[in-house]
Specification:
Blueprint (H helix, E strand, L loop, with lengths): L15 E6 L4 H14 L5 E6 L1 H13 L6 E4 L2 H9 L11 H4 L4 H4 L3 E2 L2 E2 L2 E2 L4 E8 H7 L7 H14 L2 E4 L8 H13 L2 H7 L9 H15 L16 H7 L3 E7 L2 H8 L1 H5 L3 E4 L14 E4 L3 E4 L5 H14 L3 H9 L10 H4 L5 H13 L3 E3 L1 H5 L1 H15 L5 H9 L3
Parallel strand pairs: 1-2, 8-9, 11-13
Antiparallel strand pairs: 3-12, 4-5, 6-12, 7-9, 7-10, 7-11
Helix pairs in contact: 8-10, 19-20
Length: about 400
Amino acid sequence: LALAACAGGAADSGDATLWSLTGGAEPMVRAAVQSWNEENPEHPIEHELFANDVFNERIRTAVGSANAPTLIHSWAGGPLREYVANNQVIDLTDAAAGLLSRVIPAVAANGVVNGRNYAVPNGQSQPISFYYNKEVFEAAGVEVPTTYSELLDVIDALNEHGVTPIALAAGSRWPLLMWIQMLTDRIAGPEVFTNIVDGAEDGWSDPGVTDALNRIIDLVDRGAFGNAFGSVMADQQADLALVHTGTAAMVLHLSSAYPNFLRNAPEFVESGNLGWFAFPEVEGGQGDPRNIVGNPSHFWSVSAHASERNQTTAKEFIETQVLNDDRIEDLLSMGAIPPIEGIEDRIQGRDHEDFMMFTYNQLINAPHFQLSWDQALGGARAQGLLDNLSNIFLGQSDAATFVSNMNGLQ
């Protein structure tokens, strides 16, 4: 593993550079860089790995000072729009046409700014779904809900049975986003948040947002999350542990929940007691029930400050190494789903095929895949969202206050 200079490296000198994250799909990225360097020894890519929090601190400073790595990792969203507005990344629409032609459109759309692709997917997709303990459901006499009113009935029945209906890691705050995102989308469709991202004045005043917030308040009041959710942390998968131990019946989570269940409670998964289902349709809602939210993928952009030579290296790396057949296999072997069309036959027959195909079908059938709101907004708006949403869940605010506060950050 070659390490980039600690100072970030001058953008127009030396070899191309790439920064990526530890954990998750780290082995896939390592393999891609190694493969490139073996095949292109005259144009190597230097690779440096960062923990998530350290990366977030480093990358904005590096990009802003024109010392970014050649290949810039992001989740797209707010940071990507900022990079484009400041001419810090290049247009990849034509250079990555081959890769983009294979990517599921709802995922690729997250790398588009002003009608052009400035970022391309480079890893797994993680839509949000419910995961549940089948034994707990059976003991309480409830079945998988297909509508929101059915979900409320299930919550009430689970409470009567003496089990926490839904595990929630409110102490980590970001899991709260799943609820406002899914409800707003199901109630009013993705256009509401698109307007907010675009900076529409009073965009948070849309009735769909208020409806979603009031439904969240109702969930808290009816005991959907129990009484101790404010102290549950997601870092060590404490919310998932509540489900596989039977303390809670279900959890709303990214698809990364599945490998975490498999690693932390393999007997629970292998016994067939883990189930999953999509967020139910909200009756009368305008959102397509096939829409999904979460993390469409990690993305690569190419620094506009890199030398022409290194930009060429980066573009060729994207076309030859990113989500090619070997990298697709790397992800599938991890139980992760790459956002590539036409890989059904490569999923069939694998261990955990049922879950993998469930996730893949969500991807290929989704008219819209919305990025997590904190990543989509970025900066002060993201921090304000987490602060105000936490107050809603903890009973310290109401919908009108939330809307007023968030409009003030537009």
